[in-house]
Amino acid sequence: MPGLSTWAVRRPVVALIAWFIALVGVVGLGATIGGKLNDSFSLPETESTTAQTLLEQALGKRGAQDAGATIIWSPQTGSAVSPQVLATVDPVLKKIASLDSVDCVTLIGAPSVGTDCPPATAGPTPEQLAQLTDEQKTAMAALAAAAAPVSKDGTVAYSSIDFAGENGQDLTAADAKTILAEIKALNSDGLTVAASGQALEFAGAEPPSSELYGVLFAIVILLIAFGSLIAAGLPIISAIFGLAMGQMGVLIAANFLDVATFAPTLAAMIGLGVGIDYSLFVINRYRQALLAGHAPKKSAQEAVETAGRAVLFAAGTVIIALLGLFVLRINFFNGLAVAAALTVLFVMLSALWMLPALLSLLGNKAVGIRLPWGKKPELGVTHPEGKMWAKYGRLLQKRPLIPAVLSLGLVVVLAIPMLSLRLGFSDDSGKPTTSTQRVAYDLKAEGFGPGSNGPFIVAVKLPKANDVAAFTAAVKGLGAAEGVADTLPNAAMLPAYLARPDAFGPDGTIGTIVVTPTTAPQDEATTQLLDRLREEVNPAITASSGALLYVGGTQAITSDFTSVLTDALPLFLLLVVGLGFLALMLLFHSVVVPLTAAITSLLSFAAATGVTVAIFQWGWLADIVGLSGTGPIFPFLPIMVFAILFGLSMDYQVFLVSRMQEEWNSTKDNSAAIRRGLGGSGRVVVIAAAIMAIVFGSFILDSNSMIKLFGVALSSAVVIDAFIIRLVFIPSFMTLLGKSNWWLPAWLDKFLPKVHIEPSDDQILDDEPETLVPSNS
Above 50 in pLDDT, residue 769? Predict the structure, then answer.
């Protein structure tokens, strides 16, 4: 800290110019060479990955991971493929096919249109057709009818869209909005048209406005807390500038990593919350020094030497926790981790570089322009334990066992729903009923069955080329499995399917079977079917025929994704919690304090997860948060939430306990140290936690269910950790433990270096206090 921040305080003009140059450089790089966001991910050594590889070998582009879209329609009466309906729909489909981001669009009863449509599936030659029996010809007609995108009753039909680029990443926002607008215009009283597809949904989505609500609420809290326009505005300004650099950093990182399309929103959520908090800690300490009668520049220096050190430590903890996601060895998480970590880094730099320079320049004006409720400062008068906080601390310490047990019991009760946690990806049934994705989901389920929204694609590796017997055994075995609605081809269609020259791919060794479950994608029964296929049905088919079956498709990939994360979670928790424990032990020279911090962080995480399960799985308060349906919890949410929460909980622990430690070292009075720690940092922790909870909570207003889920999880995590654990349980429990809080084996105490977050005043201030003349302008 004697480096960058001290230089910013002493040379504020030069520091601000340098900051502006850095800002322009990062924003310029992000705008010019920023990469493209995408939601692709690979899962090494999983069955779905093997299936995907085989499908691409056999089918080429048609076997690639689906990143296109589906346009589905249904008339109020009559057939979905009547000439009148097609005359309305086909022109729009052809217009969509002409867009630069679109490779191909399928039409009903006509060749596909587009700039890069795969060659039509080769049928039998005239010579082969002449050799077919009537039964085979009938079966071929049945196969064509079954493969046609029209429901059996003819009331629902759909068209498939292939987007340019790998995984649809070349789809532009303009083209996506054009597609959605054209589909919306097709809707009328007699015709319902909708579209589904993740690439289309993200590219066509409007930028979230929930950040604005979070900023507005944060401003209100800061105005109430400080009673000063400038003091309330500086944390917001600092956070926004850091966030702008962070967002550009995310785009730059997309050149080197797969960064998810929702990563900027998630990074904005995290960066805005911690950015305001970090600046708040620095400004609060600056204000305290001013009110104690110190000169403005010395106050700024004291702020960066105390709160600034804590911010550096806290941000470093968050960044390390986020980068711990690399141990999962999943490229999808690497992009999320770097995006969030870069944003935290830039908002930290803003708080420790730009903000100290502004404080140095503004001087007394930084706490000026008092509002009507802003109290006139008592110059030179300080209250080590704080007036209100002294009363609160004594209340806790009067019967410390009672608040400790009550707070712990409340957290445990909130964590109970976690026992019912079911990880998985929600389908579009949870979208708002008026959204085009939800309408498309409902139409497809109505016309083709609930399982049609998430079929399994089985790659069959035959024991020898064109092994009809082995493939037949696979089709019949899968079709007879419990929970399977139908297969394509099914047993009745096999003669027609086998008559195709490309039935088993270029080398004749790979067959493809589409398995449609009887249940919807997010139903637990669908996951049970996948397990049954892999553990019982497919091994039996392999034993009897020699064919190797690999289950793939979107639902299989997401299931494998969940399994990989579940297996990696213990290592991740051990790494992050272990590093946090070692860092706090180094900082506080205590075994009990870091152990308590680590355990209580896990308790906060469990309680926040319990709240999330109760809302998103059980449906409690669903109307309040705007949920249209319940479903499993996204598998990456627990890991991301813990990474963020652990860093934040360490922040609050450091800000509170570092003050306690300084008092303990000077007085050896544990009770007084706890009260003074609360008096020195309790107020700012309350303000910071309230702001962060509201910023996170504002994202609940977002229509994207994933962002809504993160908003609920993170806001509840901050409230539980700050207000129940850090401000009730920790001071009560530390009071009960007494001097044991600060115990460390003598040999280890000699071995560990001395690190201080809060230096004593004589280490910072080497001149006489100067009387503060507050600004009333």
Answer: no
Tell me the C-alpha distance between 773 and 29, whole Å: 44
- With 60 as the cut, is the pLDDT of residue 410 above it? yes
Contact by Cβ (8 Å): 547, 461: yes
Per-residue pLDDT at 147: 55
Q: Which two tokens stand for residue 618?
A: 């059980």
- Print the domain residue range for 89: 65-203+437-556
Count of domains observed in the chain: 3
- pTM here is 0.80
Quote the CA–CA distance of 170 and 147 in Å, as a whole number.
28
Residue 60 lies in a domain: no
Residue of higher predicted confidence among 604 and 684: 604
User: Are 360 and 399 in the same domain?
Assistant: no
Element (H, E) at 160: strand 157-163
For residues 430 and 488, membership in a common domain is answered with: no
Is residue 296 in some structural domain? yes
- 414 and 361 in one domain? no
| Cα 616 to Cα 708: distance, rounded to the nearest angstrom | 10
Mean pLDDT of the region 101-114? 81
Per-residue pLDDT, 553 = 87
List 517's β-bridge partners, or say none. 484
Instruction: Examine the pLDDT at 164 and tell me if it is beyond 70.
Output: yes
Pull the structure tokens for residue 147: 């493969």
Q: Is residue 453 in some structural domain?
A: yes
Please indicate, yes or no, if residue 775 is contained in any of the structural domains: no
Residue 379 has pLDDT above 70, yes or no: no
In terms of domains, do 594 and 726 share one?
yes
As a whole number of angstroms, the distance between CA 631 and CA 422 comes to: 8
Is there a contact between 156 and 449 (Cβ–Cβ < 8 Å)? Answer: no
Looking at residue 72, its amino acid is: I
Looking up residue 351, the CATH number of its domain turns out to be 1.20.1640.10
**If DSSP codes are grouped into helix, strand and coil, which group holds residue 446?**
helix
| Beta pairing partners, 548 | 461
- Residue pair 142/66 in contact by the 8 Å Cβ criterion: no
Q: Beta-carbon neighbour count of residue 166 at 10 Å? A: 12
Q: Once rounded to an integer, what is the mean pLDDT over residues 694-708?
A: 82
Residues 629 and 742 in one domain: yes
Indicate the range of 477-481, 497-501, 720-724 predicted with least confidence: 497-501
